[in-house]
Write a structure and sequence with these properties.
By secondary structure, the protein is α+β, with helices and mostly antiparallel strands. It has 5 helices and 5 strands. Helix 1 packs antiparallel against helix 2. The longest helix has about 35 residues.
Length: about 150
């Protein structure tokens, strides 16, 4: 009897951690699906915390929510290849804190540009890490996001 109680106490945190990890993977997949369906601007603004930091791949400056809102609302962004293309990603793994309120996901992203005048689409790839924190309502929100660009293959 004592052994069963001890085993249950040991396994309970592992079960909670596994649940938070799967929730994180699901949140990241939903975030990616929104990016494909509604565009990266809509997806990022819907999923980032007010104090989030976005570290851009390709030399973009680090921005917080207010700067991200301004950038996504600008004509420069709306007319850019980033706005006209599709950003998608696939999480490969996740980690959640023991209390299930903080975690990270990482995986690979793919950006497919809009067709050029010849109908060709530029494609780039990279790796990302996203830090997540649960908000007051219990929803996972992006606290920080950083991506790298893979070297071009020929």
């Amino acid at each position: 009897m004592k052994f069963a109680m001890i085993a249950a106490l040991i396994l309970l945190p592992a079960t909670a951690w596994a649940g938070a990890k799967e929730d994180l993977m699901a949140a990241d997949r939903a975030f990616a699906a929104m990016s494909v369906e509604k565009g990266q601007a809509v997806a990022f603004l819907a999923n980032i915390n007010d104090d989030a930091r976005l570290f851009g791949a390709g030399g973009e400056p680090t921005v917080g929510r207010k700067a991200a809102e301004e950038r996504y609302a600008s004509d420069k962004f709306k007319n850019s290849a980033s706005a006209k293309g599709t950003l998608d990603w696939k999480p490969m793994e996740a980690y959640a804190s023991a209390d299930g309120t903080l975690g990270w996901t990482n995986g690979h992203w793919t950006f497919t540009g809009a067709p050029d005048e010849k109908g060709q689409r530029a494609i780039s790839h990279g790796h990302y890490v996203t830090i997540w924190r649960k908000d007051k309502s219990g929803a996972w929100k992006v606290e920080a996001d950083i991506g790298t660009t893979d070297p071009e293959t020929k």
